[in-house]
Design goal:
Elements lengths: L12 E5 L5 E8 L2 E8 L2 E8 L2 E3 L4 E2 L10 E3 L3 E10 L7 E15 L6 E9 L2 E8 L7 E7 L2 E2 L6 E4 L14 E4 L8 E2 L3 E7 L1 E10 L7 E6 L2 E6 L10 E4 L2 E2 L2 E7 L2 H6 L2 H4 L15 E4 L19 H14 L3 E4 L1 E2 L2 E2 L1 E2 L12 E5 L5 H10 L3 E7 H4 L3 H11 L3 E5 L6 H16 L3 E4 L8 H4 L3 E4 L16 H6 L38 H10 L4 E4 L3 H4 L5 H6 L6 E8 L3 E8 L2 E8 L4 E6 L7 E9 L10 E9 L3 E6 L4 E7 L1
């Protein structure tokens, strides 16, 4: 990449463009304070946004100094270009090729300790990212960070889609609010990703999130004096300290996903491209798939001579169902508040003598694993992280010996530096014992599934488990997820409820929960959401012999390609995903009935069979009813789709 004219020592302005020239970044340093701006196709998105860092004892790098005696100055910037070319064993795309332009901008302290930090910036065609880097240097060995002073001074008054957080101890399960930037109250925490819609003549979308969150505090957003700013989660009991680190070190990437087509943000692989390469040498043991989750349905057991509860026969019932249905995994949890392991806490919460290496009396884990293996079914276990972590090495060694294939690790509820380290340690050690990990009650993904592909999925979403308790998830809630949380990566949502009810007959019930959207909407959610280990969380009799279960049995959970043929934020969306030569197309709408057109131009040349599952004409009264149709189509065709209120459609396409 050619170095722009004037790129000399001490220059006051640095510019970088994306490979296609549509995204343009500029950094200036006036009076010792660096600030950046971002434009898209010449339109201002972010203007004059200061960056900097505040350390302990009031020590600030990047503070404006009107007399120019201190603060920072720009040193010689180094420009380059690169291309990420890698495979993802589990993801929305199996092969990723991402080109980018990059500039590394040294920022030197003008007096005092003469410290050096670098701002590294990468511009992709679908977004831009930057991070702070702390190179090894004399007289600076470590740092204690009180605040990261990154700002996002959005131009104009874009409409935001944001989830407000109550505090730093959170499951990250919140509804999204839709409101103009100026109506967001100051000093209110916002989760990421947050999406902002700019309305020039023509719309532009910008999502703010982070990538490669490793050994650092998780970031949320806060509005202060009308400007969005970074807000790092503090270390527990550390008096406002956010990060402690030894040099060399670096922050996560601060990511701006940008496009004038909202589908580009959903198709983007920018978060994995900004993350480190895979650290697991042998992945032959890793197997994506679908899993039972009997807690959701209320631990249903049919009327048999077997006693329900924490025992072999209860789990055998679900293992046999998996074997009959071609489902890859059964998840062992416990039974109605009683964990599978010895626990003297209240319900699932660990007590002082909790021990995950000792099953409850009467539960033979080896027998369960051996039986599942004989049926071609893998066993996964739910566990509270506070019960697991103190015995991590011992427990994982024992789990591997038993033959367990993976874990759901729950109730993380934090994203401070300590918790970020704990989650990476869990992934590292789990890989050593051939275990995949599914985090629940956890912060958003940051691309770490590239580094540790055994991170199969994350929750961090207000999802269908809430139907059990009365905080009902509506189709209007569902439609917000693809444009917000899904941008970060895999999203566990407790899918598979097969008892759709009209609002007039919906009942809140802990056992056999009801659903508000149509069954076809539920089927489509398996395509709409990226999830490498999707739940099939109703009980066997709810599925077998039911319309649409055949689709759940065959739909993949990892993909070779993802495309978004059409979408309207907050209204409807269609996502097409390819596995091999087959395509699966899911469409959902909010609470409004509508007709849409789906172009099939994403298909390669040739003719395709299209098996279409659609809402039946009577779904207003019987939302579990659906229709089936098979027709021939090609890439030159478009399909006209009628969606019922809260409805959906799914299509399987094959040559």
């Amino acid at each position: 990449m050619a170095i722009p004219a004037g790129c000399l020592f001490g220059q006051k302005k640095i510019s970088l463009a994306s490979p296609d020239g549509r995204i343009f970044f500029t950094l200036t340093c006036k009076s010792g304070q660096p600030a950046y701006s971002v434009r898209f196709k010449g339109k201002p998105l972010i203007e004059n946004s200061p960056v900097g860092l505040s350390f302990e004892n009031g020590d600030v790098l990047g503070k404006e100094e009107p007399w120019g005696a201190s603060g920072l100055r720009i040193d010689h910037a180094v420009f380059s270009k690169g291309e990420d070319n890698y495979t993802l064993p589990e993801g929305k795309t199996s092969k990723v090729v991402d080109s980018y332009g990059e500039v590394n901008i040294p920022l030197l302290e003008r007096n005092g300790k003469k410290r050096r930090i670098c701002l590294r910036v990468r511009a992709f065609n679908d977004g831009l990212a930057f991070r702070y880097e702390f190179p090894a240097q004399k007289n600076w060995e470590d740092y204690t960070l009180m605040d990261e002073n990154t700002s996002f001074n959005l131009s104009g008054n874009p409409v935001g889609r944001v989830a407000f957080l109550e505090n730093f101890t959170t499951s990250h399960e919140h509804r999204y609010s839709i409101l103009p930037l100026r109506d967001i109250k100051d000093d209110t925490l916002m989760d990421m990703p947050a999406l902002f819609e700019f309305r020039f003549p023509g719309k532009v979308w910008l999502a703010i999130t982070e990538a490669n969150l490793v050994d650092y505090a998780g970031m949320s957003l806060i509005k202060h004096d009308g400007i969005l700013k970074s807000q790092l989660s503090p270390l527990p009991g550390q008096h406002g300290i956010k990060v402690k680190a030894m040099l060399p070190h670096q922050t996560p990437w601060r990511v701006l996903m940008i496009s004038d087509r909202i589908g580009v943000l959903i198709e983007s692989n920018i978060l994995t491209s900004l993350s480190e390469s895979c650290k697991i040498k042998d992945l032959s043991w890793l197997k994506p798939g679908k899993a039972t989750f009997h807690w959701w349905n209320g631990d249903i057991m049919p009327d048999t001579t077997f006693e329900p509860g924490v025992n072999f026969n209860f789990n055998k019932y679900y293992i046999d169902f998996c074997a009959r249905s071609g489902l890859e995994y059964h998840t062992v949890i416990g039974y109605r508040g009683v964990a599978w392991y010895r626990n003297d806490g209240i319900e699932y919460q660990p007590g002082p003598n909790t021990d995950v290496t000792k099953p409850r009396p009467g539960l033979d884990i080896q027998q369960i694993c051996d039986y599942a293996r004989s049926k071609g079914v893998g066993i996964r276990f739910w566990v509270h992280w506070k019960a697991l972590y103190p015995k991590l090495d011992t427990a994982f060694g024992l789990f591997e010996k038993w033959g367990i294939k993976g874990m759901m690790v729950d109730f993380m509820d934090r994203d401070d530096q300590e918790m970020v380290r704990i989650q990476e340690e869990i992934l590292q050690k789990a890989a050593e014992h051939h275990l995949e990990i599914q985090f629940h009650g956890a912060f958003k993904p940051t691309g770490l599934s590239r580094t540790y592909p055994n991170e199969s999925t994350r929750e961090g979403t207000l999802n269908y488990e809430n139907n059990k308790g009365g905080n009902l998830i509506t189709p209007d809630d569902d439609i917000e997820i693809p444009f917000t949380r899904l941008l970060a990566g895999p999203t566990d949502y407790h899918l598979g409820g097969f008892r759709a009810m009209p609002p007039s007959t919906f009942k809140v019930q802990y056992t056999r929960p009801h659903m508000l959207a149509t069954r076809c909407h539920m089927l489509a959610m398996y395509v709409i959401l990226e999830n490498h280990l999707s739940m099939v969380c109703d009980y066997p009799e709810a599925y077998e012999g039911q319309d649409g279960f055949d689709f759940l049995q065959e739909v993949p959970t990892v993909w070779d390609q993802t495309r978004v043929p059409g979408a309207e934020t907050g209204e409807w969306i269609t996502i097409a995903r390819r596995k091999g030569v087959d395509w699966y197309v899911g469409t959902i709408t909010n609470g409004k009935e509508r007709d849409i057109t789906i172009p099939l131009s994403f298909l390669p040349a040739g003719n395709y069979h299209a098996k279409i599952y659609a809402d039946a004409p009577d779904v207003a009264e019987n939302p579990n009813h659906l229709t089936h149709e098979i027709r021939m189509v090609s890439s030159s065709d478009s399909l006209t789709v009628h969606l019922a209120a809260g409805g959906g459609q799914v299509i399987k396409l094959w040559p």
